[in-house]
UniProtKB/TrEMBL annotation:
This is SAM-dependent methyltransferase. Pfam families: TrmK. The keyword Methyltransferase applies. It comes from Planococcus kocurii. It comes from the Bacteria.
């Protein structure tokens, strides 16, 4: 992978960046995504934020190598602290982290989200955390995608700010309102895998002391299994 040829996962993230957006890529690593977006003419200006010194230096090197220093500003900062008001950022991308960590970044930098039109989020795990955060904070899910790369399954969740009151069912929060509309083979594989894993955990809990914590956790998993199996059975009937 390089700035001209992204991984399949990052190519799909790039797909959701609007033409002529001003992008902040948080946790940018080698800055491959912002470099690609500028090189392909999708955006003219971007910020690459990185909290770790090594990846920050790699991002700087990559931007210089691509001769994009005038268009991409690489910053060493934690989360959305990489963004300044004068940047005029319209789109934020955060890819390759767990859902809860992405939510933590958004929550801690809430004041930096004023004026942001779109969030393109690619959690490696626990996408539900992002949906939970979105519904509490007034962001609507406008697009979702599920994909497989190197035997790992990833989800992309695209959010836009809304004044409307949003309501999603527990099934939609868990599995994705847009993904449920168009259930792919990868979608089915993911949820069969997740359900099987939860069943193993529930079975192991049966053999342990039934503390209140264990009972509550078991009930939570059983509910998730039921939600998933309702969808899979409906799809295969």
């Amino acid at each position: 992978m390089n700035a001209q040829q992204l991984s399949h996962r990052l190519t799909r993230v790039a797909h959701y960046v609007p033409q002529n957006a001003v992008v902040a890529d948080i946790g940018s690593d080698h800055a491959y995504l912002p470099c690609y977006l500028v090189l392909t003419g999708v955006v003219n200006k971007a910020v690459a934020g990185e909290v770790v010194k090594g990846p920050f230096e790699s991002a700087q090197k990559q931007v210089q190598q691509e001769q994009l220093a005038e268009q991409i500003d690489v910053r060493l900062a934690s989360g959305l602290d990489a963004i300044d008001v004068e940047d005029g950022i319209t789109t934020v991308t955060i890819a390759g982290m767990g859902g809860p960590l992405i939510c933590s970044i958004l929550e801690q930098g809430k004041e930096k989200l004023v004026g942001i039109e779109r969030l393109i989020l690619q959690p490696n795990v626990h996408a539900k955390a992002i949906r939970d955060w979105a519904i509490v904070n007034g962001w609507d899910i406008v697009e979702e995608e599920i994909l497989k790369e190197n035997e790992k399954i990833y989800e992309i969740v695209v959010l836009e700010k809304t004044e409307a009151v949003i309501f999603w069912t527990p099934q939609q929060l868990l599995m994705g309102p847009e993904l449920l509309k168009n259930q792919t083979v990868i979608f089915e594989e993911k949820w069969m895998r997740e359900s099987a894993q939860w069943k193993k955990i529930v079975a192991s809990m049966e053999a342990t002391a039934q503390t209140l914590e264990i009972i509550e956790k078991k009930q939570e998993l059983v509910k998730k299994i039921q939600l998933v199996e309702e969808v899979l059975q409906r799809e295969n009937s």
